[in-house]
Every structure is written in C-alpha cells, then in structure tokens.
Amino acid sequence: MKLQLTYYGNHILRKKGVQIQTITDEIVKLVHDMDETMQANNGVGLAAPQINKSLALFIFREPIYTEDKKVE
After folding, report:
1. Whole-prediction pTM value?
2. DSSP characters for 8-58?
C-alpha cells in the first residue's frame, strides 16, 4: 500500500525515532509499504518519519541508471 509522505515543517521529522526491538509482522508490512511508496515516488531512500512514523527505520536501494545515465 502506498503511504502518504510527510514534508518539511512537520514536527515528526525532528523527533528521534523509537528503536525497533522486535521484527514483527507489522514491521515487515511497514517495510513492504515503505518500499512500494519509495518506488512509486522514484526514490532511493525513505525513513519512517517521512511517512509519519516515529521509528528508527530507514530503507534504501541502489540507484538504477539508464543508458543515458539518468537515475530510474
């Protein structure tokens, strides 16, 4: 499920995220949803606060370059 992004000025972006102690089914689903959101926005990284979740969680992917050196 594509998640709504949080933008500059939102207070959650300045808060320290809560450490994840256990990988639960909820966390796994969140990571999948974050990946779908990142892909839909052509991103290379996404932190949980950027989707309004105060967690210490970040995902990224290696940029994919096209033949004309554009990031895909």
Report:
1. 0.82
2. TT-GGGGSPPBPP-S--HHHHHHHHHHHHHHHHTT-SEEEGGGGT--BS-E
| Structure tokens, 32 | 């999948």
Residue-averaged pLDDT of the chain: 91
**Higher-pLDDT residue of 66, 22:** 22
DSSP structure class, residue 3: P
Report the pLDDT value the prediction gives residue 62, as an integer from 0 to 100: 84
Q: How many CA atoms lie within 13 A of 67 on its CB side?
A: 0
| Cα dihedral across residues 20, 23, 24, 25: positive or negative | positive
Report the alpha-carbon distance of residue 57 to residue 72 in Å, rounded.
Answer: 23
Residue 68 CA to residue 47 CA, distance in Å, equals 29
